[in-house]
Amino acid sequence: FVRRTRLRTRLAPRPGAAAGPMLAPAPVKAAAPDPERLLTLARGLGDQLIASAYSDGERTNWIGLEPVEAAYRAHWRVRAMGADLASGCCGPALFLAQLAALTGSERYRRIARQALVPVPSVLDLLAERPEDLAVVGSGAFTGVGGIAYTLAHLAVTLDDPEIADWVERAVPLTVAAAESEDEVGLLDGTAGGLAALVAVYRATRSPAAWRGAQACAALLLTRPLPVRPGYARGAAGIGRALMDFADLTGDEDCAAAGLAALRSIDEALPALPPCPSQTSWCDELAGIVLAHAARWSGASSSAAKAPPVAHTLSGPWARVLTTPLPDDSLCHGETGAVEVLGRAADPELSGAAAGRAAALVEALGVRPPRCATPAGVVTPGLLTGLAGIGHGLLRLGFPDHVPSALLLEPPIPPRRPHGAP
Question: Could you tell me the superkingdom of the organism this chain comes from (predicted)?
Answer without folding.
Answer: Bacteria
